[in-house]
């Protein structure tokens, strides 16, 4: 051993990484700057930190011990924001639950996570009451009473009086190790029980910082909460905004009018959202689309924005960054890193380049596309493989599910289940979920490739392509298509449109018109469509 | 133990933090962007990464093992930049040696660090030859042959042919643990032998990222190498510039003309330097001061810039950030974090605020000012205490010096030896090095406070105040003053000037005119002045 290696870690030079420190530092350096805007409510960073300290103290007083789970079911309100700091400051683990889940699933999650406390948004009282009746866990229930959304309280204490009972002098509990859990996020699996994806302090810290890097975020951003905080902890942005001493503009309900109001009234310059949010914005009635002087950066995932959307967005003052990730990697961990020289290209070409998911985040170690033996596929833009992630922005694992954890993290990589190609410049492009691929006559068909073509038809509002069982071919592509209001197109015309643009074996054999089912985050739900296709 | 805590680290979700990954990622995403500008030389990130890989391979071929030390004595050339990546890619530890040291000290360092390889700048051949003759270590000597600075080769191989012998397919060695050493930087102690401050991969990674945060650095900065890379690894900026895919404008010799040429010709927008560099810039003859359209951010440490300097800098397009640190904390780890509302204040008031060292870096856990019992001093702007650091940007320790390491890291804090006050807003201000404080009649006098007053006299170019032994008072302040060219002021006038602005016991009793001795990084050297004062 070399002499320089032998020097031991001490309390002076080794401190667990935790994003909670961002709040502490910002509250000390910029105590009077605004942290929260919500309706008429305004709170500074000093006030926010003081409230988080009190809440952490109240949680400990209520019997929360290190490692206990505190569940929150709430819209994007200041309370859910505070929980992202106060819960870890109590040494506990935050479980932010999807507000659109049914009572049975919420009950399952409360039981599986062994929640000790449930902070609930009174607007959601009916479904939460049902969940509490169904579950075995008996969490202490705290009600968020919001005049903007009245509902019946379910517990004995409301959030404000609970918080007020905490001590302002409480010393926050620091993680014993940066590998300690900070949160559990349940995947919105469409089949089977949801899995509890566990995040650690180290990953939350690194991804929160990484968010500032991918956007080269200035100090004091004004961030609009369009992305749900229950979704991968809002991609770690609660901690990011604290790190940059920004403003959190909270929104109970996302609507085009609310977004444009926030842009025009509060100077919002950063927001995240599924493409459905982008569509909502540019599709809004003209009277809701208020002008704003600043450029607003928009981070979007799940589906690449088409050229027409990008062009309209740019015209209004939006600058779109395309990212990709999964709950298991703390939200996005791949970004279509932009090359300045691309700005000189025609907008369609820019859209084509931007439709690619891109490259690993700077602080994620590596993202590759590999064949079934784990070898990288050639960077030919053609050969599909599975997207694998490795690095410190990969989950600890699935709670109480060692088999699924071992499978997901096998061979030193997190297996995403997403299929992609690698372009010659190293940028990856998702072709499909492994389970969504259509195998027709022995050929793989990317459902996304077919969807992209159909989506470019002017009459199409939304589209999903799934496998339909076929005696001769094994499977054939079946398209479910939602048309724009007032638009018309026939099945034959759409298939012909596709045949002009795709290899013929990739074209849908059947088209079903009607509304396409979506998840709470705007993702299209394919399992029910596969079911319908099999019964056509 | 909670179920969510039990999930073990795997190769998929736990990777040692290392700044070497920034080069890998940037070379893959932006291979064709410029990385190096040096005279007529231009290299892209792809080329730079390929050269670093070859150099790492050549080092391993030459017998360098994991943990071995590779020393480099060189000016701010592309070779020293490459060493910041290639040496750790070989699993080795970089020891960048101050180019202005005497042969005896260099020999001491080579022996103490047990250097296996010495890469040397042929311009420095005479002193290196002497050092090699003095030392017991027998490193393999590699010569950097630079047509811009010819000198006699000392070894059997030149850098380019050595590098060319490495394999382009070499797989970089990754640290076994992020606590592994990445570099050793010897403090330029003015008394006794220099101490070898050991940095680890984790700290280098975090400080490199922190540099981007404090400046909210955009992508693709153009960074001018005015700060020596041998100085705390250039405050970790070699790694920062790789992370942001920027341009490194290398400078063999710092001069005002070279700086203005780089600003005007290469669009430099970021640079670091001691106040002496700032003084050199605004003091340069008008014909050397070329205009430039961009704003250039300047990070400066060591002494606060006076109002007049700040005003002149701003007028020319410079935006100065004041930072503070020591070799033991990887360069700066404290920043005078700017409040936007301060921009509305008069320039003198801005200078007063900016003269304070400020607050801990976001990714450094904590910086406090404590009394001798380790308790924080009151934030009254008056009470002095020692500046203590804690966090992941604190050295591993001093190589082969467990006693000094234990003393420096005692009680869970790194003891800086610097004395400071804390202002009511939590910003710290350095009052003195512990050993520079003057104790007169039982009262502590901050030498810096007296210097600041004398420095504000229009005739004064540089000033140092030290303790002079005094039978009655114990010590009294003695000022060494360097006047501006052509300026005149008498001892009596200067003392009167000070008495108008300071408590009388703080005023210098004697003033000595003449050049003030400085270190290679522009810091004033007080020990020889104390010696002279004691003999007055």
Give the helix/strand layout.
The structure is a homodimer of 536-residue chains.
Chain A: H1 20-29, E1 34-38, E2 41-44, H2 45-61, E3 69-73, H3 78-89, E4 93-96, H4 103-113, E5 115-121, H5 125-134, E6 140-144, E7 157-158, H6 159-164, E8 181-186, E9 196-200, H7 201-214, E10 222-224, H8 232-235, H9 237-243, E11 247-249, H10 256-266, E12 270-272, H11 275-282, E13 296-300, H12 307-316, E14 318-326, E15 331-335, H13 347-354, E16 359-360, E17 366-370, E18 385-390, E19 397-398, H14 402-408, E20 414-422, E21 428-433, E22 438-440, E23 443-445, H15 447-455, E24 460-470, E25 474-483, H16 491-499, E26 510-513, H17 527-534
Parallel strand pairs in A: 1-11, 3-4, 3-5, 5-6, 6-7, 10-11, 10-12, 12-13, 13-14, 25-26
Antiparallel strand pairs in A: 1-2, 8-9, 9-19, 14-15, 15-16, 17-18, 18-20, 20-21, 22-23, 24-25
CATH class of the domain at 16-248 in chain A: Alpha Beta
CATH architecture of the domain at 16-248 in chain A: 3-Layer(aba) Sandwich
Shape of chain A: globular
Radius of gyration of chain A: 24 Å
Helix content bin of chain A: 25-40%
| Biggest sheet character of chain A | 9 strands, mixed
CATH superfamily of the domain at 16-248 in chain A: ANL, N-terminal domain
Counted by DSSP, the helix tally of chain A is 17
Looking at how many chains there are and whether they match, the oligomeric state comes to: homodimer
Strand order of the largest sheet of chain A: 2-1-11-10-12-13-14-15-16
CATH topology of the domain at 16-248 in chain A: Rossmann fold
**Uncertain residue ranges of chain A:** none
Report how far the terminal alpha carbons of chain A are from each other.
69 Å
Largest interface: A-B, 69 and 68 residues
Overall structural class of chain A, as computed from helix and strand content, comes to: alpha/beta
Overall number of strands of chain A:
26
Strand content of chain A: 15-25%
Overall pLDDT of chain A: 93
């Amino acid at each position: 051993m070399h002499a320089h290696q032998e020097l031991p870690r001490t309390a002076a030079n080794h401190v667990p990484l935790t994003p909670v420190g961002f709040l502490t530092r910002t509250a000390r350096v910029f105590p009077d700057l605004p942290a929260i805007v919500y309706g008429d409510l305004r709170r500074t960073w000093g006030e926010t930190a003081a409230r988080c300290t009190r809440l952490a103290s109240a949680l400990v007083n209520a019997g929360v011990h290190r490692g206990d789970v505190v569940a929150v079911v709430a819209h994007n309100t200041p309370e859910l924001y505070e929980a992202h700091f106060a819960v870890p400051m109590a040494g506990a683990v935050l479980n932010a639950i999807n507000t659109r889940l049914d009572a049975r699933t919420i009950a399952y999650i409360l039981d599986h996570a062994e929640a000790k406390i449930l902070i609930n948004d009174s607007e959601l009282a009916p479904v939460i009451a049902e969940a509490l009746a169904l579950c075995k866990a008996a969490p202490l229930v705290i009600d968020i009473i919001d005049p903007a959304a009245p509902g019946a309280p379910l517990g004995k204490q409301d959030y404000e009086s609970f918080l007020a009972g905490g001590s302002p002098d409480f010393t926050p509990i620091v993680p014993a190790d940066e590998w300690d859990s900070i949160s559990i996020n349940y995947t919105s699996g469409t089949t089977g029980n949801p899995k509890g994806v566990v995040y650690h302090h180290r990953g939350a810290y690194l991804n929160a910082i990484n968010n500032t890097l991918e956007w080269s975020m200035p100090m004091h951003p004004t961030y609009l909460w369009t992305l749900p905080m229950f979704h991968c902890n809002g991609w770690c942005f609660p901690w990011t905004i604290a790190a940059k001493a920004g403003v959190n503009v909270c929104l109970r309900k996302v609507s085009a009018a609310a977004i444009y109001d926030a842009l025009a009234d509060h100077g919002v310059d950063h927001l995240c959202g599924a493409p459905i949010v982008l569509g909502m914005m540019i599709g809004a009635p003209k009277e809701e689309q208020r002008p704003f002087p600043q450029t607003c950066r928009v981070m979007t995932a799940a589906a690449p924005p088409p050229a027409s959307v990008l062009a309209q967005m740019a015209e209004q003052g939006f600058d779109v960054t395309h990212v990709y990730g999964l709950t298991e990697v703390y939200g996005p961990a791949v970004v279509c890193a932009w090359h300045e020289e691309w700005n000189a290209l025609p907008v369609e070409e820019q859209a084509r380049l931007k439709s690619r998911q891109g490259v690993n985040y700077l602080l994620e170690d590596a993202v590759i596309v590999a064949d079934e033996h784990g070898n990288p596929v050639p960077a030919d833009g053609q050969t599909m493989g599975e997207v694998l992630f490795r690095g410190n922005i990969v989950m600890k694992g699935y709670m109480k599910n060692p088999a699924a954890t071992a499978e997901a993290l096998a061979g030193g990589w997190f297996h995403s289940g997403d299929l992609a190609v690698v372009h010659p410049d190293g940028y990856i492009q998702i072709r499909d979920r492994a389970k969504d691929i259509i195998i027709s006559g022995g050929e793989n068909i990317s459902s996304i490739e077919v969807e992209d073509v159909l989506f470019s038809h002017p009459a199409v509002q939304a589209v999903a392509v799934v496998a339909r069982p076929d005696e001769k071919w094994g499977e054939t592509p079946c398209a479910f298509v939602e048309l724009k209001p007032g638009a018309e197109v026939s099945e034959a015309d759409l298939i012909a449109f596709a045949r002009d643009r795709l290899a013929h074996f990739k074209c849908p054999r059947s088209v079903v018109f009607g509304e396409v089912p979506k998840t709470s985050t705007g993702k299209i739900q394919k399992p029910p469509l596969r079911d319908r296709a099999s019964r056509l």
